[in-house]
Design goal:
- With about 725 residues, the chain is an alpha/beta fold.
- Helix content is about 55%, strand content about 15%.
- The protein folds into four domains: about 200 residues, no CATH class; about 50 residues, no CATH class; about 160 residues, 2-Layer Sandwich (Alpha-Beta Plaits), CATH 3.30.70.270; about 250 residues, TIM Barrel (Alpha-Beta Barrel).
- An eight-stranded mixed β-barrel has the order 13-14-16-17-18-19-20-21, surrounded by four helices.
- A hairpin with a 4-residue loop joins strand 1 and strand 2.
- It binds ligand C2E and magnesium ion (2 copies).
- The site of one magnesium ion (MG) has 4 residues, from loops.
């Protein structure tokens, strides 16, 4: 079904733009550039950067400090002391007297005093090669003994700012041991300077290394991460259409691969979301515009198509078109009696037949439970709406629908209107087609009705009549007339049919006109007004029958017409019982006349209602019998007392053998089913003679009396001489 609808030329332009999947629609913006440009700043603002920087900085500092403490600083100190010792050694060596004997001091006091003045040497202790003390000069060294254990002793006392070392023969190239005490205050300062300088260098190095590292980290780690963060933020904000930039990062390194994957995921997510949304929108669109059972466009889409078609016609880009409304006759019966599965299969079958019978340019829609609508451009092939309707009628009727191996003959009522011939407003064309469809249904269904302006007038007239009828009810313009019913064998008046009369006052000479119930009853039925009217009729008729009996002694059965709508629109049973009880009339003396149309509606409900009515005791007659749809099997199920032969058969019985045989058959049927048979429309003595001959039980007609007001009826009964003979004269 779906495929059919795609090609419809009048398909309206329902906005589908929102559900087009466009995977390229994710706009690439200059977002990335801004990330890169602002990144140096961002790097230093980043908490992560600061943590890494601090860690790197501290680590470098720590390592350098360790190196200094355990490596460079002791070495530096040692070098200073070595230098100092060398200074002392060369000063001492320069004043040593090479000619001095080995057990005498090789120095003169003057030389030493000069040396003390000009060098860092504060004093010396001189020992022979046999470690014998010879002499000391200047400040005496604290090492005052030379033995094999302290030969290499160095005495450095920073707090006292002196340094002592022992120079031996290999240092002096002379056979002495000389303890040299030197001023060492500068060493502390040098070490302090050294530490200061080293710390400065360490800081600069740390800063430099950290900066280089941060720039590298920033470029290779932070920038990509910020880029990814920004893209993820954008994707989070607008997952369906993320405003993200392609990754400029090298996909050969791990972070580049991660970003590439993240980018792909964002796009994949966006595509999935778009696809899901588009599928959901498609579904919503289908639900909103298509009938789920048949897949045909629904009423909404049809009306849009209609407007579109009208617009195209006005633009001159389209032809005139036919609007056909179709209603399946008595579809509810099939649904009720066979179940919804069968009903649905038939609805689908009808849809299929209609769709394949119509050209692609037609819009075939299902507009209600069992209603279809077709809009079709009229072309040379099918140039009139009537032809389209006939095709539809034929297609539905041509052969029964097969469901579960059972055949179902489906009939349809069809309304036809043409755009722009019948109306220039597309909605009005549809209304006109509906008016025509209603006409088709009223005129017995299974037929085609083309819209005519008369229908409109008729509809207007009906509305007027409905308004008038409401007034008539209020102003008590409705009256009941009574027509006698006689028993053919005894000749007695056994009943009276109550018939509604509406005398509508006007300015005429007569002061008003009688409106036929045949005209106003259908209006009352359609509007539901039949329910209060029917209740008034029943109450009035029963009161009348009661007064005839109580006040005048005539025990006459009262026949009251009940329309099918009263069965469906009210609880007729409860009301009848209430009236009978309130008025106090014998239930057997009340007869309800129903037409065969009551069997058309809900059969189960009808059977139940008739049985309930029968249980109260009222009699039941089928009015106008022979004109409608009755099945013998149904007749046996219904608790019917009387068949009322339709007057058309009686009227023609004498000159039309078919009608005569129908009348005869109904009488025989009544006898076979043990039902009474009454004939109405008995106008002449010949009619009466025919019915007597055929064995009919009861009669009613102008031959005896027209329907008359209650007073006249009483007069008729009072004057009537108990049998038919006086009337035969
Ligand atoms: P119906 O129930 O078949 O009533 C018989 C109709 O035949 C009456 O027409 C009556 O006047 C007419 N008639 C009786 N004898 C003869 C005859 O010998 N010759 C001819 N030509 N006609 C005869 P009426 O009163 O115009 O009623 C028409 C229909 O309106 C009734 O047909 C009935 O269906 C409906 N109707 C009348 N009153 C009521 C009512 O109170 N409630 C409902 N629901 N329908 C009513
Ligand atoms: Mg009747
Ligand atoms: Mg009748």
């Amino acid at each position: 079904m779906q495929s059919d609808t795609k090609t419809i030329s009048f398909e309206p332009q329902v906005d589908t733009s929102t559900h087009i999947v466009n995977t390229d629609s994710h706009k690439r913006t200059n977002n990335f550039k801004s990330v890169l440009l602002s990144s140096p700043g961002q790097i230093w603002k980043s908490r992560l950067s600061w943590r890494i920087a601090a860690a790197v900085f501290m680590t470098i500092l720590l390592v350098q400090t360790l190196i200094m403490n355990f490596g460079t600083l002791p070495a530096f100190k040692q070098r200073l002391l070595n230098d100092l010792r060398e200074t002392g050694r060369s000063a001492v060596s320069s004043i040593i007297d090479p000619k001095a004997s080995f057990n005498q001091t090789p120095f003169t006091s003057d030389q030493v005093a000069r040396m003390v003045d000009t060098t860092k040497i504060q004093g010396i202790g001189v020992y022979s090669y046999q470690t014998e003390f010879l002499k000391s000069y200047g400040a005496p060294p604290s090492i005052n003994k030379i033995n094999i254990d302290n030969l290499s002793q160095i005495n450095f006392v920073p707090e006292e700012n002196f340094y002592e070392t022992i120079l031996n023969a290999s240092d002096l190239k002379r056979p002495y041991y000389i303890v040299v005490r030197m001023s060492a205050g500068h060493i502390q300062d040098e070490i302090a300077y050294y530490i200061q300088d080293t710390i400065k260098i360490m800081l600069i190095m740390s800063l430099f290394v950290t900066t280089v590292l941060m720039i590298a980290l920033g470029r290779w780690l932070l920038e990509p991460m910020l880029f990814m963060r920004n893209n993820l933020q954008a994707a989070f904000k607008n997952p369906e259409d993320p405003q993200i930039e392609d990754s400029p990062f090298d996909t050969r390194d791990e972070i580049g691969v991660a970003i590439d994957l993240a980018q792909k995921l964002i796009h994949q997510n966006a595509d999935n979301l778009t696809r899901i949304k588009s599928a959901a929108e498609d579904k919503i669109h289908k639900l909103a515009y298509y009938d789920t059972l048949t897949g045909l466009p629904n009423r909404t889409l049809f009306i849009q198509s209609l407007s579109e078609g009208a617009r195209q016609k006005q633009d001159g880009t389209a032809d005139r078109f036919a609007v056909i409304t179709i209603d399946l006759d008595h579809f509810k019966d099939i649904n009720d009696s066979m179940g919804h599965n069968v009903g649905d299969a038939i609805l689908r079958g009808v849809a299929k037949r209609l769709r394949s019978a119509m050209p692609e340019s037609a819009v075939v829609s299902k507009s209600g439970e069992d209603e279809y609508m077709i809009m079709m451009p009229l072309s040379t092939d099918l140039s009139s709406s009537r032809e389209v309707a006939e095709k539809v009628h034929h297609v539905i009727r041509t052969e029964p629908f097969k469901v579960f191996n059972e055949s179902f003959q489906v009939r349809a009522s069809i309304g036809v209107a043409t755009f722009p011939d019948d109306a220039v407003d597309p909605d009005q064309v549809l209304k006109n087609a509906d008016i025509a469809l209603n006409r088709a249904k009223e005129e017995g269904r299974d037929t085609i009705k083309e819209y005519s302006e008369d229908f409109d007038r008729a509809v207007q007239a009906r509305f007027q009549m409905l308004r008038d009828l409401r007034d008539a009810m209020e102003n008590k313009q409705l009256e009941l007339y009574y027509q006698p019913q006689m028993d053919l064998k005894s000749g007695k008046v056994i009943g009276a049919e109550a018939l509604l009369r509406w005398f509508k006052p006007d300015n005429s000479k007569e002061g008003g006109t009688f409106i036929s119930p045949a005209d106003f009853i259908p209006v009352a039925e359609q509007s539901g007004l039949i329910v209060p009217i029917g209740e008034w009729v029943m109450r009035t008729a029963c009161e009348m029958a009661k007064s005839w009996k109580e006040e005048h002694g005539y025990d006459i059965r009262i026949a009251i017409n009940v329309s099918a709508h009263q069965f469906t629109q009210s609880d007729i049973c409860a009301f009848t019982q209430k009236v009978i009880e309130e008025i106090g009339i014998d239930a057997h003396k009340v007869e309800l006349e129903v037409t065969e149309s009551v069997f058309m509606d809900d059969i189960q409900h009808t059977i139940q209602t008739l049985q309930n009515l029968h249980a109260i005791g009222v009699e039941l007659a089928i009015d106008d019998f022979g004109t409608g749809y009755s099945s013998l099997s149904y007749l046996r199920q219904f608790p019917i007392d009387r068949l009322k032969i339709d007057q058309s058969f009686i009227r023609n019985a004498l000159n039309n053998p078919d009608d005569a045989s129908i009348a005869r058959t109904i009488i025989a049927l009544g006898r076979a089913l043990n039902l009474k048979v009454i004939a109405e429309g008995v106008e002449t003595i010949e009619h009466e003679a025919f019915l007597v001959k055929e064995g009919c039980d009861e009669v009613q007609g102008f031959r005896y009396s027209r329907p008359v007001p209650a007073n006249n009826f009483l007069e008729f009964v009072q004057n009537y001489k108990d049998d038919l003979k006086p009337l035969e004269k």
